[in-house]
Specification:
16 helices; single chain; alpha+beta; 628 residues; six-stranded antiparallel beta sheet
Amino acid sequence: MNQRYHRGKLILIISTLCFCLLTAYAFGKFERSFFEMELEKSQEELKKAAELEAKFVQNRYETMILSLEALAENMEGRSISQKDEILMQVSLLAEVGYFNYVGISSQEGDIIDSAGQTANIRERGYFQEAMTGETVISDVMESRVRGGEPIQVIAVPIMANGTPRGIVFGILNIDSMDQIMEGETGSDIDIQIIDSQGNYILRKQSGSGPPGNRNAWDEFKKYEFIEGSKEEIRANIEEEKAGTLMFRLESEEKFGYYMPLGLRSYYICSIANGETLRQWQKQVNAEASSMMLKMTAAFLTLGIGLYLYSKKVQEELRRSHAEAVSSEEMMSIAIGESDQVVFEYNIQTGILRKKAGGSSLLFSESSAELDPETVLSKGVLAEESVPLFQDLFETIKTEENVEGILKVKEQNNVRWYRIIMKNIYDENHDLLNTVGIADDVTEKKVQEELLRMGEKEKKALQKQAERDGLTQLYNAAAVKSKVKEILEYTNPGSDCHLFVLLDLDYFKQINDTFGHQYGDQVIKEVADILKKTFRRDDILGRLGGDEFVLFLLHVPGFQVMEPILENLCRQLHKTYTKDGKSVTISASLGIACAPDQGNTFSELYSKSDQALYEVKARFKNGYKLYEG
């Protein structure tokens, strides 16, 4: 007896040691896998942040180029000697655009900028490149006029009869770029944009201000790379590849993602601090360690309890186990559900036997023995439920539990039954019995279907209530509601909004000549031009037919917006040709200022409509501000 006790004690000690070693191994593997998984997830978020910021920056540069192109078109046929007029134009663009300075040069390189300064830029690379007829976005350079401060230049040619006659250029101060380009990434992610020489164009820092280095390659000298290297990053940039990096800067561990910006040879990089990830890992490790200790204690307790357990009790439990488990499982299923049929299924013989419950289409006879094929032969199962019914009785042969919902036909009605089957095993995992229930869930199924259909209709109604079906601009009701809401919070004397009523000239001829389907495509094209021209926060709507309304928020004033309105009129002045027939359309705009000329939708609409009428009556293809 004593020898047997010591043998059991030794087995318990060995089992406990094995358990602890396996648990420690599993814990270590879990720690590594968890960190790698979280790192991969964080890098994917950085990739999305870089892509989002890249799209934002591309749109911002496109907007700046469009504003310079509009100014260049206005300068056609004008001489740089007209200093006062040119100074007014460039000062206006510098005030409302994103540039720190705006300038215009002659064909010889003589310039005047928005600060009134003059110089000659004939030897500048961006001037020479723009004079070939190309739009130029420069790398970071030092300004010769403004004390060597780092700048970037965007230049477009002034064309006359297909020949460059000078350039229009905008100057961006690199130190203020992070304020100009706010982007849409999270506050815990640093965004960096570098030019082809590694000079920083944009550095948005989530923490303290940016370091003193203005060049990425100089900055990399301070990094202790954990993943990637300076040489690898340079090689990837030369081949226009994306990549990841991980480095340590002083006591901080950081990781990032870099990719081509899609603009010149510029690159964008998003960087996050790894400290948050490490803290989360420590917290998970602490919880896992605590769980491991508890599991070890539980294992020891269980082992000691089993060791001390009486053999006589074990034998008694073994004899009664089969009957007790089967009865308890059946009673648990029957009591836990309502309106059910309880049945047994013998996997070896394939016989079904109803044990308890009311009448059912599947088990119509209280004690009859039948098999699954007999149930199918009754023809009560819907055709689409037959494969599932067969699969349930096939799968229960290898699985412990199966469940499925069957569709049953009852004359002209349909009912739904949930079938649940469970295998009951003894302590040696030998199959004792298979029990199941058939539960009528018709009412619940119908309610779920009605609820699902209701949610679809609700979403469809919400979308229909706000958006115009053809253009996806706001419809008339939504425009009125949103304009009213904004006007309620507009401060007289400080806020200025433009209410623009837009009507297409000669649009009826499009429908009469080419048909209404063609006309719908023209309306969609107009809507796309409006979306590209104005900001995302501006309210753009279609009142019906070829009438649109634009509510431009927080503008400096009507005069400032004139170049944009002129450019819009040029874009909408188009000729459409089909089957040898041509129709030319244009746009007429009537404009009112809020809140000075009205603080309700009806007042602004009435006054802008009067201005629109004057445009239509006089010359069309233009715009006019209400005067009254």
